[in-house]
Amino acid sequence: MPRLNAAAPQDAARAYAAVADVFRQQGDVARALEIYELAVEQAPIDNRHVVAALSAMAEIHEEQGNGEMALELLKRALAARSGATA
Fold first, then answer.
1. Predicted structure pTM score
2. How many helices (H) and strands (E) does the chain have?
3. CA–CA separation, 4 vs 24, rounded Å?
4. For residue 20, what pLDDT is reported?
5. How far apart are CA 81 and CA 86, in angstroms?
6. Whole-angstrom Cα distance, residue 58 to residue 48?
7. Neighbour count for residue 48 (Cβ, 10 Å)
């Protein structure tokens, strides 16, 4: 996966999240999780794309029966939404 180093952080996060959504829709959740993580790494903590990526990651982990990881990701999403660090 090429890095979007030249893009503004918010734009990179949005692009990664969109690509991850496609992989998720196609059933490649491992790749989707990897790319959602890239989205989270790119943007400021309070960016809405970070919140969306963390929430999507939580949903995937919940679907896979990993409730603890899902809860941790939801906590991070909530913290990101409020502008705090988790």
1. 0.79
2. 4, 0
3. 20
4. 96
5. 11
6. 15
7. 14
Identity at 34, one-letter amino acid code: E
Distance (Å, whole) CA 16 – CA 37: 9
CB atoms closer than 10 angstroms to residue 17: 25
Q: pLDDT, tens digit, for every residue of 16-50?
A: 999 999 999 999 999 999 999 998 988 777 778 88
Q: What is the 3-state secondary structure (H, E, C) of 42-67?
A: HCCCCCHHHHHHHHHHHHHHHHCCCH
- Nearest CA to 43 among 2, 1, 83? 83
Asked if 29 and 60 touch (Cβ cutoff 8 Å), the reply is: yes
